[in-house]
Amino acid sequence: MKILSMTATFGKLEHETLRLQPGLNIIEAPNEWGKSTWCAFVVAMLYGIDTRAKTTKTTLADKERYAPWSGAPMEGRMEILWNGRSITLERRTRGRLIFGDFRAYETETGMDVPELTAANCGLTLLGVERSVFVRAGFLKLSDLPLTQDDSLRRRLNNLVTTGDENSAGDTLGKQLKELKNKCRFNRTGLIPQAEAQYAHLEDQLRSLQALNSQAQRLENRQKELETWVAQLENHKKALAYAAAQADAVQVEQALRAQDAAQEQVAVLEQAAQALPPETEAARSLKQARALQQAQLSLQMEEQMSPPAPQAPDAPEMFRGMTPEASLTAAQADGAQLRALAQKKKHMTLLAVFGAVFLALGLLAAAAVWAALASPAAAGGLAAAVLGLVCLAVGGIGRGGAEKAQRALAERYGSQTPSDWLDCAQAYAARQQAYAQALSDHEALCDQRRQQMAALQAEIDNLTQGRALDTCVAQWEQVQQTWSALGDARRDLQQAAAHAKALQSMAKAAQPPEFADTLTQSASETDALLASAAYEQKQNQLRLGQYQGQAEALGQESAILTEMKQTKARIDRLEDTYLALELAQKALSAATSELQRRFAPKISKRAQALFSRLTGGRYQRITFGEDLSLSACTQDEDTLRASQWRSDGTVDQLYLALRLAVAEELTPDAPLILDDVLARFDDARLSAALDILRQEAQTTQVILFTCQTRENEALRRLP
Predict the structure, then answer these.
(1) What are phi and psi of 90, to 5 degrees?
(2) Potential cystine with 181: which of 185, 254, 313, 521 (Cβ 3.0-4.6 Å)?
(3) Which residues contact 214 (CB under 8 A, 6 or more apart)?
(4) For the stretch 691-706, what's the b/e string if a residue is b when 16 or more beta carbons lie within 10 angstroms of its beta carbon?
(5) What pLDDT, in 10s, does the model give residues 240-261?
(6) Cα torsion for 277, 283, 289, 292, to the nearest 10°?
């Protein structure tokens, strides 16, 4: 099959068309152009979209990943050349079924191709299942390593063993497996069914035996219950007789209690005749207690009231003076201090003038006297004498003023008249506060004395001069007597009602029929009787059920006969299963022998391709049962796994294997490669393009690439 053109509304492709030729196609386009989308479109057109796939945290389902970006329905058309016929394939979205509407028709005539359907299109055109195609003829850089797949492995095994994909050995092995599964597969098959039937018969036999045993136990239990019920009924009678006897005793005791209560009422009524009425005693007692409480409150107030205030102490300088005299003295002393300061200032100034005159007079007299004794010298001496007098008078006056100032300062303890006045004012304020506090205290004491006198008058009026505590005790005694009489009358009423009730409830009872040995109470006996009756009823129901179930299970002899027949059938089936298992092992051994004989078929072709790709450097490769590869160079003695090789060499190794597998499994399918040569160097790229060009002579090759070097290398090839 060869693809001629494709038109897609698929993912980012919106009515895009890609035209191809039958041979080698190198499609060069940048990243995000849609190369991988075209590759996915080819698979979807041939095999459809798996709408059951679910999106996970790591992968997107194809139905969501390739949903058209424009929001249009997913659809596509592919023109192919198949067996000399030009055919057009179309897939459209129908409702919620993505790519569910399929049609295949002759491109020129439009006539339907009935052998191609939506389900078998890819398998019919390419001859392989979807999983085989995407792992053999459909190569991407990320998928170069050949992974396992049941369909791929089955076809490879058939090829390397018999040279034919449709192996008769595989069919025979499948038939043997089906026969074995028919005999036994997990919990299904003829053997498990027979074993289940045998186990069912064993269960049936055990159930029948258990039912018969349970029925016998129930019958024995019913007899025990009958005896137990008779004992309980006799015990109930014994309890009733004992209760009747106890009721008679209680009635007698209640009547005696009624008589005692009557006597107590009579005694108290006689004592109450000499007492004042109960209401009068209660009223007087209430008033007396209120007066007691008021008296106690006044006494407590008197005890808790503060003591009389103390007179404040007068300062030392004002001792013996009234506050008003203290203020006057402080003001006068302040004025005197200021006058003394002024006098001291004047005397100081006079002394200074005297010193000046004295000095000038002495200087003048000395000068004139030295020159010539004359009246002028006498005038200088007179000035000196005047200065001396002023100096003496000023010194004496200044000393007297200082002495008076020191006396005032020592008296007040300070030289500041404002402090003297503040001290006098503070003393006057303390004296005024004391006078107010003393007045308040005396007023409070007068008020309390008046209250106490009024209270005492009320007490005397109530008690007629007797002690209040004595009156309270007498009235309490009266009230207690009346209260005891009321209690006695209520007790009498209760005793009479109790005796009457006991007399009405007392019943006669017959003694028990036989000796009673049980100790349960009446309520416990009733509960036991009810429980026994319920158990008898339930046992009777279960007994009927057991008998019915036993009849449904059948006879024990018939079950034993059927078990023997089933066991014989199981033995025959086990022999058959063993024979099938031996045949399957023999077929597996034969297949292994064929694999050892013909396994090199694909590896030989892959080895030749790998040698060409690497310029003859690698001559030997092998691949294991899990399709993993090993190789060695000409200079190496042992094979090494692909993990030992460079990324480019690994790509070339798996490309060789994929091409060999594609030649064998998908010879009719196009070979589609998506950026698989990205890690090839120039020499090995040229070798790969030469191989692909050779493959393109018989198979259509479509190479997608994001680089220009593939086309350039292809043009350089001879």
Answers:
(1) -130, 140
(2) 185
(3) 542, 546
(4) bbeebbeebbbbbbbe
(5) 888 888 888 888 888 889 899 8
(6) -100
